[in-house]
Design brief:
The complex is a heterodimer of chains A (71) and B (140). In chain A, helix 2 (23-30) packs across helix 3. Chain A is built from 5 helices and 2 strands. Chain A has helices spanning 11-17, 23-30, 34-41, 49-59, 63-66, and strands at 7-9, 67-69. Helices cover 54% and strands 8% of the residues of chain A. Chain B has one domain (3-138). The chains are: A mainly alpha (71), B mainly alpha (140).
Chain lengths: 71, 140
């Protein structure tokens, strides 16, 4: 299996700041399963560009405010 | 655990059980004959019927308990997992089938060739679900 890219994210943090939004609510908002949100938060899955934009729009911030690249 | 991961676990277990059922019969028959048993169409049909019926029953129970999650189409992560697992399973089939052909080239046992090719198909399906489980757990 290829090594995972060093992509970090603040999805959990933003979700909690966003009125304790549940993983299921965020999943419904962007059209993925709750397990995919869990995988993103745990760094086991890097979402597509489309989903990254959808997540950032849900929180009303830029993509770079949600995702980062840390080597 | 997601509905699709549960599905992968269940299908892997059903297929492993089916393979054990099939090759136990073939081994017993071969022992009785004193040589590799010839292909038995009835046994192949029985294997397929058992797999299909067990899958329908258990998948129905899983789908009912999963509710709307069972109706939802695969999302982007699940599609990637299915694609990768299917791709890697193809290599398993190829390697196992080549092993069967190699065995035939050396031993000229056509009956064994049939069983090994059938085994390679079973292994390919089992491997696909095992790879899916690994990808769901380790990440894509």
């Amino acid at each position: 299996m290829a090594k995972a890219p060093p992509i970090t994210n603040r999805v959990r943090d933003l979700r909690e700041r966003h009125g304790q939004m549940s993983q299921a609510a965020l999943a419904d908002a962007i059209g993925v399963t709750r397990q995919t949100i869990i995988a993103i938060e745990q760094g086991r899955y890097s979402p597509s560009l489309e989903s990254a934009f959808r997540i950032s729009r849900v929180f009303g911030v830029g993509v770079e405010d949600v995702f980062g690249w840390e080597e | 655990m997601s509905f699709r991961e549960k599905t992968a676990w269940v299908m892997a277990l059903i297929l492993i059980g089916g393979a054990i059922f099939y090759f136990d019969k073939v081994a017993r028959l071969s022992q009785a004959l004193g040589q590799t048993a010839p292909p038995v169409v009835g046994l192949v049909i029985a294997y397929v019927v058992v797999i299909v019926i067990a899958s329908i029953i258990i998948m129905s129970v899983l789908a009912i308990s999963a509710g709307k999650e069972a109706d939802a189409p695969a999302d982007e992560r699940e599609k990637i997992i299915a694609d990768k697992a299917g791709n890697w399973a193809g290599y398993v089939i190829a390697v196992a089938a080549l092993g069967g052909l190699w065995h035939y080239a050396v031993n000229m046992d056509g009956n064994m060739l049939f069983h090994l090719i059938f085994l390679s198909l079973m292994l390919g399906q089992i491997a696909e679900y095992v790879f899916q489980i690994a990808l769901y757990r380790r990440g894509v």
